[in-house]
Structures are given as structure tokens and as C-alpha cells.
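Q: Start with the shorter request: fold the first protein.
A: Done. Sequence, then structure:
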Amino acid sequence: MLYCEDNCDDVPPCDYEWNCDDILYITMDFFNYYDTNQDGQINAGDNVDASSFEIVGEYCDFNMNNSICRWEVFECLVDHENSWRELNCPEGYM
């Protein structure tokens, strides 16, 4: 299992894995694209089609406030990576 809050060097490697640096990069790239008004939140004030926002919100809006912050995207991607590892690389999911 990947934990990005602390040192994850002891996590066994998996083919095609994302590490904490990858997830941070993806988070920032996602935000640069979708946070069109640059207020630090992805929400109805951004130029995001409703169906895309609904899908991302369903999985990533942890506090259910209809706004997704960087922390929520980052944690959502960590959850996604761990789900992928559980299915495809059990030795990388402990």
C-alpha cells in the first residue's frame, strides 16, 4: 500500500506503478487544467462540463461540499493507485 505522508521507499515496486512524486505531478497537472478560475478549488465556478465534474466529485469530493481541493485530488489518486495495486500487484499492496 502506498502512503504518501511518510517515506514510501519500502513499498515493493510494481510495473506501471505511480509513486508519490507521480501522484503529486498528476494532481498539479489536473489542477492547472481544471481550476480555470485559479481559486484553488474545482467547482461550478470553473469551466468544467457537468458530467466530468460529477464523476470526479463522486470519487474525490471527500467532504461533500461540491468543491474539490488539491488535497482531495491527491488523496483520490492515492486511493486509485492503491486499488490498482491491490488488483494488479499484490506484493505492492501490503
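Q: Next, the second protein, separately.
A: Sequence, then structure:
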Amino acid sequence: MKTISKLIIFSFLLTAFIAVSFSACKKDTTMTVVITVKMRSDTNIVVPDANVYIRKGEMNVEGISDINGQFRQTYKLEAIFDVTAIKQIDPTTSISGTTVVRLVPGQTVYKSVFVN
């Protein structure tokens, strides 16, 4: 009788442990990257309306920097991306710059691209 009681209690505890282990909440792995486009000659000057390209393999995102020279994008998977920023000055002149950004799970990553 004592053996059956111990077996039932052990089975209950084992079932409870397995249920808790598999029902644990997943951590938020959303990652945001904030790209700031700045002039190389004076890093205090931001570049609004620059075309920003975030690329790696088949993952391509394009956008335009805002009035603060920033472009934001959110991802669900960790990755390392190549970033290019191009600002068209006039029909024949443009300035550009590149950098690399590594996304960190659950964090916002800030990276600057310096154009000249």
C-alpha cells in the first residue's frame, strides 16, 4: 500500500514538473535596429531623407531616414546585416556610407552610418 502511494505521488510530481517545464513563457526576442545617418566631416550633422538599405543574403529592407537622420526596423531573428546609406544631393551627385550591424535578442541596437 505504501509503495502504491509513493508511486502515485511520484507520478503526480513528475507530471507537474513536465507540465511546468514545457509551458514556460518564451522571452521576447524582438530586436530593433536604429540607424542614424551622419556626415563624416562633422558627426554632429545628421542626414535626413537618406535612403537606407539593410541587407544580408535574401533579407532586404529599404527605408528613408527621418528628420533626425534615423531609420528604425524591427526583427524577430538574430542576424548580422550590411547597412548602406545614400543621400542624393542633386541629379549627378550623391554621398554614401556603409557599416555592419549585429542584432542582439531583446535589445535595441543603435548604429551610425557616416556618409561623405
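Q: Describe the second briefly.
A: Helices lie at 2-22. The CA atoms of residues 57 and 81 lie 9 Å apart.
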